[in-house]
TrEMBL record, chain B:
Cellular component, GO annotation: plasma membrane
Ranges annotated as spanning the membrane: 6-27, 52-73, 79-100, 121-139, 159-177, 189-209, 247-269, 281-306, 340-368, 389-407, 413-434, 446-467, 487-505
A Gene Ontology BP annotation from the UniProt entry: plasma membrane acetate transport
Keyword Membrane attached: yes
Location(s), subcellular: Cell membrane
Main location per the UniProt record: membrane
Keywords: Cell membrane, Membrane, Symport, Transmembrane, Transmembrane helix, Transport
CDD domains xrefs: SLC5sbd_u4
Annotated membrane topology: Multi-pass membrane protein
Any one GO MF annotation of this record: symporter activity
Family: Belongs to the sodium:solute symporter (SSF) (TC 2.A.21) family.
Lineage, uppermost ranks: Bacteria, Bacillati, Actinomycetota, Actinomycetes, Kitasatosporales
Name used for this protein in its record: Cation acetate symporter
Amino acid sequence: MQSSNGRSRGAGDESANVSGDHPDRTPAPEDTRYRDPWYDALASGWGEGEARGAPTARVPAARREERPQGGAEAAADVYLEVQRSAAFQEVRSRYRRFVVPGAAVFLTWYVGYVVTATTAPDFMARPVAGAVNVAMVAGVGQFLTTFLFTWAYARHARLRRDRAALELRWDTQELTRGVRGGAS
Amino acid sequence: MSADHQSLALLLFSVFVAVTLGITTWVSRHRQGSAEEFYAGGRLFSPMENGFAIAGDYMSAASFLGVTGLIALFGYDGLLYVVGFQVAWLVVLFLVAELVRNCGRFTLADVVATRMRERPVRIAAGTSSVTVSVLYLVAQMVGAGSLVALLLGRTGEAAQAWTVIGVGALMVIYVSLGGMRATTWIQIVKAVLLLGGTVVLTALVMIRFHGDLDRLLLTAADRSGHGNAFLAPGLKYGGGWTARLDFISLGLALVLGTGGLPHILSRFYTVPTARAARRSVIWSIGLIGGFYLMTIVLGFGAAAIVGPDAVRGSNAAGNTAVPLLALDLGGGADSTAGTVLFAVVAAVAFATILAVVAGITLASSASVAHDLYASLRHPGGRQRSEVTVARVAAVGIGVVAIALGLLARDLNVAFLVGLAFAVAASANLPVLLYSLFWRAFTTRGAVWAVYGGLIPALLLVVLSPVVSGSPDSLFPGTDFQFFPLQNPGIVSIPLGFLAGWLGTVTSPELPDAAKHAETEVRSLTGAGAV
């Protein structure tokens, strides 16, 4: 199973591979999809049109400067540059705008559950239906919200973040490879 | 227990051992030597395989034996563990899995060391990872011990010790010969076995009650002798404010600890991309969630069918509730079905312990060799010797875990795991989150965050009623108890975060903007990930 998809081992080969047929890049979604060995399996899982959430992110700006200086300093500059690029800022803010409120909500809900269980056992013992009481409902509810959050996160990451992140990855690797003189 | 149980369980267990040893030798036929292979299994597992392996790593004896026992004895309060174990995966999914996969190579320290001065950070993070792993290992060893005690009866003290030693020896063989590849396959086999066993038992419990959950709960409440209080929080953690705080402390430790467990973090490196890491976590959330929902049924089933008194009579901490339940579901100690089911469950539990133990040993040997050894020694013939060191470290960790496991024999397994989670949440999670998300974080902050969580957590455990000053503690004869809670999380987790902040703001060193940029870009895009 592992080697059948022809994925080369190690980041070095991979980026070399990619940059080889990259220069004439137009926004070609299939192109990036085949770069990532797990992408197609992923997109087929939910049966949604992926074009809907297709992010706008690309980093044309980052690739125009080819610097002659070599070594780690230049590579560090590449990372700073990518970090400042609009495309990266967009990916980051999409990630944070989802993750921070999401984490705040589920942690609050969980801590609230634990604190209520300790401070208000009478409330938790109140029967709902038959032997099932509020505590049981809340406990199982924690499971359900966990599944729900998992689904929401996966969907958000797939539709809003993955492609932009992948493009940034190749661009960044190409740039660092450039300044390091071929060895990534 | 009768000789039939014993011999059948031992036979099944021997089959599992033979199969896993076969996997180990088969896997380690060709590739040898490279650190990539040893620590990360070549990084080419599929998300589904890794999802099963993560579930196998996570569904430990603590869940299968410990939590069901706690539910059988204390009803709803045992359920808190299950909820905490499950919700914790959201922290992993949202904040940890993908970013760690992108930034690190083999261990937690890799992620932090990308940004910081390598040596102090590696030593700190390596130390805390090894500590967490050893605590977790002890819990598994105790689980193995109680199973054997159940199988061989109360007289088998020597046999119990020998089993713990045997488990330790096997795990050393798996890890040192097979590395991550063998360990992963063992986890997958074990996860399938454990889920299969749990499904069968749950189905049998539901059949016994004609699919009527309501009646199951009512019968459990009835037999417990506590009535409806059994179905509501408060039996174990009710009463005084210390017990309530303990409950909250445990809850925090469970939900924040998972993201700092070294053997879970190291699993993300066995897949090629961050997206694959995400998908493995999604798989494992599904598997683990299903498993825990079933353990709730099993716990209440044990209370309803076996009865808390019989459970307590067999093992005071409740660790043997599930095997007893299996015996009863099959038709009792004299029936063939009961014997078989009991033997199967005992063998599955053994397999569980063995697999988890192998996973933790591998992760901690990686910490020793990749972080501690590499930082404390002069760089020599690196790659080759690092794997050798890791193999030797696996032996050393095995010995320590065996010794501590024999010492801690009478503690509840789930409770011990709670301690490991508390230490992981205090020492590992703050430094990990700060390095991934905080621009101004510095080396001093990182080192302080680790020690500022690790040392208080361990000190508070030593000063707690777990170690001394109460009839149930490790050293009941002495009393240097000072801290009233059993779980230190509520104090030590904030201390870890506080220490990291304090170390950073008092640090003379300016944060390195370029390194931060590198971490941020790499963590979110996967650029330069190995």
